[in-house]
Amino acid sequence: MKSFFRFPLAALGLLIFLTNCATTVTEKEQPSNTSQPLTAPTATGARRLDSAGAAVSAPDARTSSPANGIAATPATATATDVASAAALAADRPDPAAPTAEAASAERAKEKKLTATDYRIMLSDAEASLIVNPKNPRALLQRAKAKSYLKQYREALPDYTAAIRYQRNNPDAYYNRGVNRLMLKQYKAATTDFSGAIKYRPDDKESFFGRGVAKMQMYQYKSAVGDFTKAIQLDSTYADAWEYRGISYSSFDKLSEARRDLEQAAKLNPEAAKSLRRYVGNSAGKEPIKTPAARTAAKR
Question: Residue 227's pLDDT band (boundaries 50, 70, 90)?
Fold first, then answer.
């Protein structure tokens, strides 16, 4: 399947199978088809968002000897369990959940796994769910394994169930958001990334993912705000600079677009392709002209 956009959506690399995904767009164009996984990027080689979050959110101390780190059987509750339960009851972020930095590191680790590893992940999760069908960590792991294996629709019920049993888990929202991007459910993806941000407000990749979902819906000005927040959280986030620049160019903020795309190119030389495409080069080359604006199809 071909891409919706004329610019590479680094955000679709949120999942491992999207690490090399790329799509392109401008505000003056109407999407005509779907995003394509496992395609070499056309405009950037910067780091990509991948399969959301830590492999699991927080250790479930109620269990003992969990297979593959997934809690399965009851044990003595700890102070961490009590704090987590209280946070869940009050709809607050889980104090035991991984930090944004740890979640990002786990995503990077998962990117390196193979299809065989994902099938093992799926098998381990299913074994744990036989013991406890309501284990949110096992549900999330099974959902992620399905997503990695491109079983996007099959993964959705598990993500939803994981959130039902642990509604303050930012990783579950983040992963479901990515999965919904693959299903072109952009409005729902935006809502999921917002859920991830609610429970982990310093997660730059969730802001980036939400920005991409908005761009898919032609909400470029709003997307700029999300990319700005991602940059505030990490000034070296090349993809955020690049896509904020492309967003600016979509509503004729060419000065701002040039600034951002030049910064993106400094951080990642591959972003120079977007610089040339959307605002011309530093020698004053005219930017590429884009077709007349069209009305986005209502979703």
Answer: very high
